[in-house]
Amino acid sequence: MAEPTVTRRLIERATVSTAQEVDPRLLRAIKSAVRSSDEELRSAVGSLMDHLKKNHSQVRYLAVLITDELFMRSKLFRSLLVVNFDQFLSLSVGFRSNMPLPPPSSIASVLRWKSIELLEKWNASFGIHYRQLRLGFDYLKNTLRYQFPNRLENVQQERRDRENRSKQILLDKFENLKEIYSSVKAEIQSTIDEIERCLEIVSVKEEDDLTYNFSTEDDVVVEFKSLTLQQIRLDSLKEGEKVQENSDNKAIFDALRELHKLLVSKHLLTVQNWISVLIRVDLTDDKFRESALKEFIDLHNVIKSVKKRAAN
């Protein structure tokens, strides 16, 4: 008598369990073994068919689960199994009156339902390539009138439902954007303007950029409300070099860091999110979408530029 192959021994161990699933470690070992050679794969087909003949539905159930794992992964395995596919269905579904599924009856019901579910899945994935699959599926569904779970149809319906929900979410976001569009732009622009004012203080300026206006004390506080900030700005412009942080101008640097953080952690993400919404939303009237998208892209470029300057 020939020595049992590695795969046969593993399948024997995997099908004696009372669990509802195949032991993951044994399943991985079976997959590894059948990948090692065609001989092991052929041995797996024979061993699984032998276990499907066992007079216990639990053994057959676990054999069917292992069969599914190998069927979905190996063309050779599929080609070998469909040769005796009628026998496989008889032993797993029990559709022949003279070949009922063995006890226990509770497991037999689970075995039948799982086998029908897998047949539907296999037919959807590979039926076009294997005539035996198509014939088996058609016979059980249309001749014997077995109820199939319509797994593929359910999956497609679930996908359509998800797509519809996603479309509605985008439409809701789009309608919300139309209401807050002006305020969002104004808030972002305000932050950019504040950063620009801070950068004027701490950035290099040419001598001829300097504009003096000492007419009155009120005139001096046109752009900057603080006389201290105005003086720091004038000093930096006169020196023509970048101001280093010190105790006198620390408030400006602190403000710049906070504004930079706000720009990156909030405004940049906001603009990116709205660009994504505007690109993906499905609309009949694109007028506002196109206009808003252009402005947000421009704003995104400005933010990236200011972000880079502020980081330096």
Describe the protein:
This protein is mostly helical and 312 residues long. The protein folds into 3 domains: 6-149, Serine Threonine Protein Phosphatase 5, Tetratricopeptide repeat; 162-197 and 250-311, Methane Monooxygenase Hydroxylase, Chain G, domain 1 (Up-down Bundle), CATH 1.20.58; 204-241, no CATH class. It has 13 helices and no strands. It has helices spanning 6-14, 24-36, 38-52, 57-71, 75-81, 85-92, 105-126, 131-143, 151-202, 217-220, 227-239, 250-280, 287-311. This is UV-stimulated scaffold protein A-like protein. It holds the Pfam family UVSSA_N. One of its GO terms (cellular component) is chromosome.
CATH architecture of the largest domain: Alpha Horseshoe
Radius of gyration: 36 Å
Q: Assign a percent range to the helix content.
A: over 70%
Order of helices and strands: HHHHHHHHHHHHH
**How far apart are the termini?**
80 Å
Number of strands: 0
- CATH level-3 fold name of the largest domain: Serine Threonine Protein Phosphatase 5, Tetratricopeptide repeat
Q: What structural class do the secondary elements suggest?
A: mainly alpha
Protein name: UV-stimulated scaffold protein A-like protein
GO molecular function: RNA polymerase II complex binding
InterPro entries: ENTH_VHS, UVSSA, UVSSA_N_a-solenoid_rpt
Pfam families: UVSSA_N
